[in-house]
Design a protein that fits this description.
heterodimer, A: alpha/beta, Glutathione S-transferase Yfyf (Class Pi), Chain A, domain 2, Rossmann fold, four-stranded parallel beta sheet, 14 helices, B: mainly alpha, Fumarate Reductase Iron-sulfur Protein, Chain B, domain 2, 2 domains
Chain lengths: 299, 193
């Protein structure tokens, strides 16, 4: 199948540098679904909205704008796979397009590096492109599946910055959304509803670095609720949430003495598995939590 | 003639200023917070919906409603020197649920910006800055990951500033425009020697 939809693939930090399987899976699975993800050369950290936004919003705007301009220069919309990046890149793009004063301020800084924000592109999360029936849609995903993920229950963690704040997004309900569940069920898996589904993973806003125990206590509450609902694995759309749930479980065991062994996947990784990618093509061995028991169930 | 004014001009001025003030109140703090946040914090009627849905509230003394009040009352010292200011995970639940359509999360971000102007900032925030100044990435690549990438058929370094370091110069120019690296280095050195 030839790709009809082409995007500049904005990688961020954690996916390419900690969970490269998500990057590889995104590229390969998208190709099968008619989305061509091309490299965005020279992109940097989005930059981290919690850290940079807290220090100086103006630097956050300018740094994010530089990444956006790289895609403008390619004449391509951006697709990305991280909620934190989505906050930076989507939100700054939107703000600069609609706020002249802000745009002029940012462009004054960008002029120093011969760049200009023009506002010519849009920014998308790969998840929303996969769900959009005009781009891919659930039906087409279902048709692309070779290995249905039968017999497992998945808890969906949406993450915060994909959907919230609602008035600055366009993805509907932030209290009980169900569209990622639809994406997961298209892979043949079951999904579970659990208490306080929309709660944060605990890592954002610089809290993971500032007070790890506090962040982990939030993560721990979510994991407890997922286990209570009978989940075999967590799926998310954000490598930072993934890191918090995955490595977080090791830290939770050290700090609180509680062990979950709950595998954590980015949606792209699950899609890859269901499309028949070999686990070795997804670098699942880099996950902190062993994915073998889960793989035995589905493969 | 009917007038809403009082004969005493001082009393007039005091009563026209509808805000409650204490010795510690700084009206400029309220204005700056609102401007940076892009949200009219003074419209907050203290219902507490924000704190009720806050994931940080049940496990700490952090109370977003209290920070909203501090913002409105101009209690700069109290707000900026409170270590709880850094416990917001920026999940935006409060912002989504605020019945006054305010953005408490952005009020917190504004206060953090104002705190940074006074060198009040946890060091971990600054370390992200120095990491990006060095490589363009807040979370840089490593050898284990490079080997894994190669096995996956990806380039050993992603096609970001890692593969094209010539772009780092532009990033440094932006950060230097705001003296951010210089300030980060200085504060980290003061704290950690």
């Amino acid at each position: 199948m030839t790709a009809e939809h082409k995007y500049a693939f904005y990688l961020g930090c954690i996916a390419p540098n900690r969970y490269p399987g998500s990057e590889a899976a995104s590229i390969r699975t998208s190709k099968k679904l008619g989305i061509d993800l091309v490299p965005l050369e020279g992109a940097s950290c989005c930059p981290a909205p919690g850290a940079f936004g807290s220090i100086d919003l103006n630097v956050w705007y300018a740094m994010a704008a530089r990444n956006i301009v790289l895609a403008e220069q390619k004449g391509l919309d951006i697709a990305l796979i991280c909620n934190g990046c989505y906050k930076s890149i989507y939100e700054v793009n939107h703000k600069l397009k609609h706020n002249k004063e802000l745009r002029e301020g940012v462009n004054e800084v960008l002029k120093e590096i011969d760049m200009e924000f023009k506002g010519t592109i849009d920014v998308w999360h790969l998840g929303e492109l996969l769900y959009d029936p005009e781009i891919v849609g659930v039906e087409k995903i279902r048709e692309s599946i070779k290995v249905p993920l039968k017999g497992v229950k998945i808890a969906v963690h949406y993450g915060c910055h994909l959907l919230k704040p609602k008035k600055e997004r366009h993805l509907g309900s932030t209290e009980n959304p169900m569209w990622v569940e639809e994406l997961v069920e298209a892979l043949g898996a079951e999904t579970v509803q659990y208490r306080n589904k929309m709660q944060c993973c605990g890592a954002g806003g610089g809290v993971r670095g500032y007070d790890l125990t506090h962040a982990l206590d939030i993560t721990n509450e979510k994991l407890t609720n997922m286990v209570e609902a009978g989940a075999d694995a967590v799926v998310d759309l954000c490598p930072f949430c993934q890191l918090q749930f995955d490595r977080g479980q090791i830290e939770i065991e050290e700090k609180f003495g509680i062990k979950y062994d709950m595998p954590v996947f980015h949606y792209a990784e699950l899609l890859g598995l269901a499309q028949g990618m070999n686990p070795s093509e997804l670098a699942l061995d880099l996950h902190a939590i062993n994915t073998e028991p889960f793989l035995k169930k589905v493969l | 003639m009917v007038t809403k004014n009082y004969p005493d001009p001082k009393l007039n001025e005091k009563l026209r200023d509808r805000y409650y003030r204490r010795d510690q109140s700084n009206p400029e703090f309220t204005k700056e917070t609102e401007k940076l946040a892009g949200s009219m914090a003074h419209m907050c009627y203290q219902c507490g919906t924000c704190t009720g849905g806050c994931p940080s509230a049940p496990r700490s003394t952090y109370r977003i409603r209290e920070f909203m009040r501090r913002g409105v009352l101009g209690l700069e010292e109290e707000a900026l020197t409170d270590p709880d200011l850094w416990l917001c995970t920026t999940c935006y639940s409060c912002t989504d649920r605020c019945p006054r359509d305010l953005a408490p999360t952005d009020v917190i971000m504004a206060m953090r910006n104002l705190a940074f102007r006074r060198d009040i900032i946890p060091v971990n925030f600054l370390k992200t800055v120095t990491a990006i100044y060095a490589s363009g990435h807040g979370v840089p690549n490593n050898d284990v990951n490079r080997a894994a990438r190669e096995k996956l058929g990806l380039t050993r370094d992603p096609p970001t500033t890692h593969m094209y370091p010539e772009y780092i110069k532009g990033i440094r120019k932006i950060l230097d425009h705001y003296n951010l690296k210089e300030n980060a280095d200085r504060i980290i050195k003061e704290r950690e020697g």
